[in-house]
Design goal:
Blueprint: H1 5-27, H2 36-65, H3 73-90, H4 95-102, H5 106-114, H6 122-132, H7 145-148, H8 152-157, H9 162-187
Helix pairs in contact: 1-2, 4-5
Length: 188
Amino acid sequence: MITNERQYKITRARLREFGEALVLLGELPAAPRNQPWLRLAQKESIEEQIDQLQQQIDEYEKLKEGEIEISDPVNAVSRMPLILIQSRIARGWDQEELASRLGMKKQQIQRYEQNNYAQATMSVLSRVAAVLAGKSDPASQPASKQEKSRSPKAFAKGAKPQSARKQSVAKKNVSAKQRTVKGNKAVR
């Protein structure tokens, strides 16, 4: 989805580039060993990209012109907690089942629902909605214990979790002690 004028301009430029590539592909001479299925696959791939870009451009232009009716965002956001709770019940899940599928404790779901998800982050709301919709992707999975122990900066840099660093330091200390002990035995 195009979200601003800069993206709109970039998308229009990409659309022109793909259009030109399609024309150039059509002008290429057929080589004696040319495989027709390969040329067809290239053409279809470019056409698919053109279609996707054009759809994004059309949607953005229609939104700007007010041609697409958008529901009231305040109403949509304020109804979300009720929709999540109703979806859970309609699926026949209790709070414990939802919690299990999210990798949370039942008490956390109870707190969220009791307070109409007022303390939940957008990330949590998205994960709950994805699970209730039956969708599963890496973003909707709970973070592992190792990931939770990393700071966001350290995680982005690929640093080891703190517990792994402690284990590494402990191994080094044991190795140093073993060398000292072995060294002392050799002296005796």
